[in-house]
Amino acid sequence: MASPQFPLERTHPLAMPTENFHTHHFGDGEVMVGAKPAEMLQAEADIIFSQGVLGKTVLDIGAWDGFFSFEAERRGAARVLATDNFCWSGPGWGTRQGFEYAHHKFNSGIEALDVDPTELDPARIGTFDVVLFLGVLYHVKDPLRIIEIVSSVAADTVVCDTETALDMFQEPVMRYFLGSEMNGDPTNFWAPNKACMEAMFREFGFTQFKFTEHPHRPNTGLRGRVIMHARR
After folding, report:
1. Residue 1 predicted with pLDDT over 70
2. Per the count of CB atoms within 10 A, which of 59, 203, 210, 215 is most buried?
3. Residue 213, pLDDT above cutoff 70
4. How many CB atoms lie within 10 A of CB 106?
5. Full-prediction pTM beyond 0.90?
6. For residues 41 and 88, what is the distance between their CA atoms, to the nearest angstrom?
7. DSSP E strands: which ranges in 41-110?
């Protein structure tokens, strides 16, 4: 059975937005400036895509302005589905306008679906060779449940970029952050240590793990950030 397709349907005027999170260089001299510089994004992408996506299908959960979706396409992914809800139509400060503008400028074939991560379903969207789960885990209230859902749409690999805490412990533990304790953001709740991340993904069939320290966030033991590649 053919995988369902989700072609982009524009929801905003085709104009560059003034408030963005991702920075995009379009190659014609025009730059969409975001809160996160292109150099920082590129350094993260070199780690995120270190195992390659050439000829693979990619799902980007929490795509926002789409930097990593477009980077997957640029690196030769056979198909990319970008999803978001919190920033595209939910309570986040972002919108989908930056993604749509970049989609036009890159003449992209990326698909798009406005869906909350808790509502991802392989019966609806199929499964993907590589699932990007970047900067989302600490925002969810039930981390084990969301990992189960993410695992259900991942045929082979999940790349998870997340805050960590308590990495000085060998046992799998997770810290809860009350209110705005984590980075001044009341939508941040949980930070597992690396042992906990691995244990939770092992629960759903992943057997190979590689952890890379985030290029812009040194690990103090108490706090850190990692990019994890988990494979079945």
Report:
1. no
2. 59
3. yes
4. 17
5. yes
6. 20
7. 57-61, 79-84
